Amino acid sequence: MRFPLCDHAGFNLHCTDINKTVLELPMSGTFLVHNIDYYKQQIYISDPENCLAKRLLTFNMSGSPFSSRFSTFYTFFSCPNYVALPYSYRSIPCLNNSTSSFYATTNYAFVELMLPSCQIVKRLHVPHTSPSGEIEFSSYVGNQSLMLEWLSPNCRSCEMDNVRCGFKKKSSLEVKCFGSKEPGKLNCFPCFCLLLVNQGNSINGKYVEEATCFGERFNAMYIFRSR
């Protein structure tokens, strides 16, 4: 990780004992981080227990710097197991129990037709990656991830020039770009979970004469030299 995710109050990212990057949301708990796009200022997260639908029922981004540009309004509902639904409505396995099956849909009119045999659990906005996107709550819901974004601090111009971004002063929230513009290169920070490798030896979080920085942008590798 690098600025602002590792040097800015409120982002709350850290590494676990098994070298997984996690995000702590004050009102929603812990999520696994799958990908970070520093140029677009987006982060992709999922549920460590592979039940994203359950986490969405109480999902709240309040108190964090993250937001969602797009969302879709879903109705979560449950039905007794003996109630037959159309094939297109597949249940959410991680929410099901011995007596009831759980579903989610954007078609509220259909849910109204199923009352009172079925019961509404909750209606809520679910974050999406595009205006028309829909998360399919099906047997593989555990593999889905949510895309969140941060608007401040804005480091897009620094990312475009492949230079570091940071605060102008410790007492200021204004940011500036540091380092020279070198096309194709990306400066790395000693604040990340992934390893720096030098001549086959692992060096965790330290600047070395020459090293490889793994996968922080476009899942690529970048070479840098310490100064």
TrEMBL record:
Its EC number is 2.3.2.27. It is a single-pass membrane protein. Its main location: membrane. GO terms for cellular component: membrane. Pfam families: GUB_WAK_bind. Keywords: Membrane, Metal-binding, Signal, Transferase, Transmembrane, Transmembrane helix, Ubl conjugation pathway, Zinc, Zinc-finger. Pathway: Protein modification; protein ubiquitination. Belongs to the RING-type zinc finger family. ATL subfamily. This is RING-type E3 ubiquitin transferase.
